[in-house]
Design goal:
single chain; 598 residues; alpha/beta; ABC transporter transmembrane region fold; Rossmann fold; 2 domains; 6-stranded mixed beta sheet; 22 helices; binds adenosine-5'-diphosphate
Amino acid sequence: MNIWQLFHKLRPFVRPYRLLVISTLLLTLIGALAAQVNAITLQYTVDSINALVEGHQGVAAGGRILTIISIVLLSKEIINTLVTFGQKFYGEKLRILVSQDLAQAIIERFLTYKLTFFSDDDNQAGKLQTRIDRGIGSLTRLVQIFFIDILPLFTTAAVALGLMYYANVWVGLVATLIVPLYFWITYKQAQKLAGWRRMFRSNMEKKSQGIIGIIQSITVIKSFNREAIEADKQLTLQKTLTANQMHTRQLGFVFDGLKSFVEQIGVVLIIILTAFLVLQGKMSIGMIMYHVLLFNNVSAPIRSLHRIYDEMNDALIYAESFFNIIEAENEVEPSGSLKPAPIRGKFELKNVDFHYPNGHRALKNINMEIRPNAITALVGLSGAGKSTLISLLDKFYAPQSGSICLDGVNLNDIDTQYLRENIGLVLQKNHIFSGSIAENIRYGNMNANQAEIEAAARQASIHEQITQLPQGYDSDALTLSGGQQQRIAIARMFLKNPPIIFLDEPTASLDAIAAEQIKNSLDAIKQNRTVIIISHSLGQIIDADYTYVMQNGEIVEHGQHENVYAHGGAYKQIFDAMAKSLNVDKIAKTFEQNTATP
Ligand code: ADP
């Protein structure tokens, strides 16, 4: 991406603040004119004082000149202060407003993306966050640089150059010749640094991801005493970063020296040329001062050109990945337009094949039918593809081949939001947001009132417990136990009241008591709906009307519990293993003995 494309992409974000931009431009023009006052005043001073000296006039005669100069310089300074304030303030205001819009735009955008986007290695939370933060930071810096640095400095330079040409074409030419040379050096510098900057960016992302990784796995790291190894891993990255920064700085200093040298040559040339013209009697002596100060105005922006260029390059690099995220058209979740009503909940899968973006083939030639208003259990060892299958039914992912139909309509043709309105998903770990219990339940239906929230909580068998909390429904939901949080999630589903429910190991992360406690809530939510349940709990599997058994992404057996069990295959193996792990024989004996002895 080049700078023009970048500006083009930024335009829609700046457009709403046109008035702000125009005000800044006006102030810039005033500032540029005011910046030349010093040069003019000094030339006038030198020439006037010189005339007085040559005329052998004393201090008294100089009083008038000094008064004029003081008034002019003071007024200019007042105007300049106001203009600079206005410019900086408006520039900053623009930066803040654009930053707010960019941040909001990217959030709104990636919320619409497919899950594949988030499961991509390049888009891990830490990496994505760094890229977005840096993108917004440097893009808005760019807006600010443009209005606070580039525009005022370059307008000032252009006016100063104009005045030099007006005074003498040769002087103007010398000043102009230095500019492209300077530009060229800056360009070379930026070119040499671009690769290093990209590398720096990717290493910074890795570093943030590394820190997040450590924090997330701190318990494991500590329990294995792997602190030193983790620190070592970070040290390697840190060293690469340091070497990278050193090299960048070193290159920067070499080029800075070169540019300073070129600028000084410019000053010397201007002095020599003007002195020559003064000696020829073509100019007054004050013009030496005048030209040196004007050249200073010309070279000031060029001096900061490299900083501007650097920041622009930063902006370009970060903007590239920022706009890559915001413009990832392929990542937007596809949606059909059909909203078949009422939804019965009959899923039919034909020859469904699916592999994850990393190439892992998770589902192979799946053919199945999920009956409406019945409970279907998906059974299989972990990694068999059960959760993947549910993700496909929820349109989180799309199969690469084969078809999935709901009530006879291909999922591709169904409006995605409508589909998800009709599906409730209860996972192993449910997502309790920071906020009150009431807010968390209301997530199921944003228009629900307190009475409806309470009714849902009652259905999920959690109302009593909530009312016993000191702050009741206003209590912080994150302080609840795992089992309670799970029931909050189920209450949320009652409020949403979808005809289809997917339960993905809803009790796996709970202890036996909690699992038992939420059994009622689960049984209640299963009523009169199409339910698919994935579970490693015998009680929940045995309750199902129909069972599909999965192995390595394939359906290997299916039927009613008794029939599949009788088949003596994978299901029997898994079921027996579950029963053995529960020690069913001894449990049964314990119950027998306790019921036999009154
Ligand atoms: P189950 O629910 O039966 O335990 P999953 O559907 O979660 O199994 O996973 C099926 C297979 O797909 C596993 O081998 C798993 O490692 C792989 N898998 C799951 N999610 C992803 C993902 N986002 N990217 C790549 N592979 C994945």
